[in-house]
Specification:
This protein has about 400 residues and is an alpha/beta fold. The chain has helices at about 15-20, 25-35, 50-60, 75, 85-100, 115-120, 130-145, 160-165, 180-200, 225-245, 280-290, 315-330, 375-385, and strands at about 10, 65-70, 105-110, 150-155, 205-210, 215-220, 250-255, 260, 265, 300-305, 335-340, 360-365, 370. The strands form three sheets. An eight-stranded parallel barrel has the order 1-2-3-4-5-7-10-11, surrounded by six helices. The longest helix is centred in the middle third of the chain and has 25 residues, at about 180-200. The relative contact order is 0.15. It binds beta-D-fucopyranose. Beta-D-fucopyranose binds near residues 14, 160 and 357.
Length: about 400
C-alpha cells in the first residue's frame, strides 16, 4: 500500500505527560493532594522533555518522521491571569525552532487536558468567561510562536476531558454531573470557535480541533442496539463537531477503539485488547474516517496507538490501522497524515506510568534513558518509504 507522497508521518506527545514539573497546573495540585485512590503515580519529572527535547526531536528524525505533535502548557505561558511569562514563551520558541531546524513540521496543541491553577480556581471550563480567557491565551501563542508553528490545534478531546473531569469524576476537578459535563462541552465549543477567529485575526496558519471518536458496533440481537449505537456515535462525535466544523481548517482524529453494543449496553470482546483492556478493532478507524467525509475537511489522525509493554503487537497494530487509513483514502476521505501515540512512554494520566504506549521505551530506573523499541524501526521504515507492506 502506497501512501500519497505528501502524507504527513508523525508521532504525538503532550506537555504534562512528558515535560515534567508542571507545577502551576491543576493536575499538579491534584496529584500532590493525593486524596484519590485511583491515582497511581504523580507526574513528577515525567520524561523530562522540558530539558531533553533536543534528544527527543533527534529520535523523531531517526524514525524518519515528517512531523511532531506536541502541546504548549497554558499554565506555564500564563501563570497568572493576563500575565504572560516571556521566559516560558522563549522556551517554547526554542523547542519549536529546534523541531523546524531538524526538518519537522510542527502541530501545536494549545490545550491538552491541563489548566493553569488560577483558571481552575475561577471555575475552569464551567466559567462563562472561559472562551474569552482561553482565546486570549491562544492569540498570544499565535502572535509569539507563529514563526515555528505549521498547524495550530486549539483543544484536545473536549468530550473525553469533559467526561473524565465533570461526569465520571476521575480527573480534576472530579465532578460527577451530566449537566456540568454538557455545559463544559458547550463552553469548549465556543472557546474553540473564538480561539479560531482570534488566531486567524493575527496569522494565516491552519487551525483545527482534535476529537477522539470511537466507532460503535452493535449486535444483531435486537434492532434497538443499532439505534443505541447510532445515538452514542452521534453524541460522542457529531454533536461537538457540527458547531465547530466551519471554524476548523482541518479535523484531528484520535482513534483508539470501538465499542460494541450488546443488549443495550457496551459489551466489548475480551480479545484482542491492549494492556489497558481497550478492545482493538481496525475497521472502526475506517468507519469513523468515512463518517467524517461529510465535513469535506482535511483530516489528520492526530493520535492512534497501543499500550503494549512487551511490544508484541505494536508493529502489527500500526500496519493494520494504516491499511484502514489507506482504504479510506481510496474511498475519497481526505486523510493527510498519521501521528502515532506516542513517541515516548509517558505519564498516562490517572493510570500513571504503567501503560507503555511509546515507540521509545523510557527507562525510569536509569535516568530516563530512551531506548527505541523494535516497532520504532518498523514504523521508521514505513515513514521513510510511505509504504505499508
Ligand atoms: C488520549 C489522550 C492522550 C493519551 C492517549 C492514550 O485520549 O489525548 O493524552 O492519554 O489517550
Amino acid at each position: 500500500m502506497e501512501f500519497p507522497k505528501d502524507f504527513v508521518w508523525g508521532a504525538s506527545i503532550s506537555a504534562h505527560q512528558t515535560e515534567g514539573n508542571n507545577t502551576n497546573s491543576d493536575w499538579w495540585k491534584w496529584e500532590s493532594e493525593n486524596k484519590v485512590q485511583h491515582l497511581i503515580d504523580r507526574s513528577g519529572i515525567a520524561c523530562d522533555f522540558y530539558n531533553r527535547y533536543s534528544e527527543d526531536l533527534d529520535l523523531c528524525c531517526k524514525a524518519n518522521l515528517k512531523a511532531i505533535r506536541l502541546s504548549i502548557e497554558w499554565a506555564r505561558i500564563e501563570p497568572r491571569q493576563g500575565m504572560f511569562d516571556t521566559r516560558a514563551i522563549d522556551h517554547y520558541k526554542k523547542v519549536l525552532q529546534a523541531a523546524k531546524e531538524k526538518g519537522l513540521k510542527t502541530f501545536v496543541t494549545l490545550h491538552h487536558f491541563t489548566n493553569p491553577l488560577w483558571f481552575s480556581e475561577i471555575g475552569g471550563w464551567t466559567n462563562l468567561k472561559a472562551p474569552l480567557l482561553f482565546s486570549n491565551y491562544a492569540k498570544k501563542c499565535a502572535e509569539t510562536l507563529n514563526d515555528y508553528v505549521d498547524f495550530f490545534i486549539t483543544i484536545n478531546e473536549p468530550k473525553i476531558y469533559s467526561s473524565m473531569a465533570y461526569l465520571h469524576g476521575v480527573w480534576p476537578p472530579c465532578k460527577k454531573s451530566l449537566l456540568l459535563a454538557t455545559w463544559v462541552q458547550i463552553i469548549m465549543a465556543k472557546s474553540h470557535n473564538l480561539a479560531y477567529k482570534k488566531i486567524k485575526s493575527v496569522v494565516g496558519k491552519p487551525v483545527g480541533i482534535v476529537k477522539n471518536i470511537s466507532w460503535y458496533e452493535y449486535s444483531s440481537f435486537t434492532p434497538l442496539d443499532k439505534v443505541i449505537a447510532k445515538i452514542h456515535f452521534f453524541l460522542k462525535g457529531a454533536l461537538f463537531l457540527n458547531p465547530v466544523a466551519k471554524y476548523s481548517d482541518f479535523i484531528g482524529l484520535n482513534y483508539y477503539f470501538t465499542n460494541r453494543i450488546v443488549k443495550f449496553r457496551i459489551k466489548n470482546p475480551d480479545s484482542p485488547v491492549n494492556d489497558l483492556g481497550w478492545w482493538i478493532n481496525y475497521e472502526g478507524l475506517y468507519n469513523v474516517l468515512l463518517s467524517l467525509k461529510k465535513y469535506d475537511l482535511p483530516i489528520f489522525i492526530t493520535e492512534n496507538g497501543i499500550a503494549d509493554s512487551a511490544d508484541k503487537y505494536r508493529a502489527g497494530f500500526i500496519k493494520k490501522m494504516l491499511s484502514q487509513v489507506h482504504l479510506a483514502i481510496l474511498r475519497g476521505v481526505k486523510v493527510r497524515g498519521y501521528f502515532y501515540w506516542s513517541l515516548l512512554d509517558n505519564y498516562e494520566w490517572h493510570h500513571g506510568f504503567a501503560p507503555k504506549f511509546g515507540l521509545v521505551y523510557v527507562d525510569r530506573e536509569h535516568n530516563l534513558k530512551r531506548i527505541p523499541r523494535k516497532s520504532f524501526y518498523v514504523y521508521a521504515e514505513i515513514c521513510k518509504n510511505g509504504v505499508v507492506g
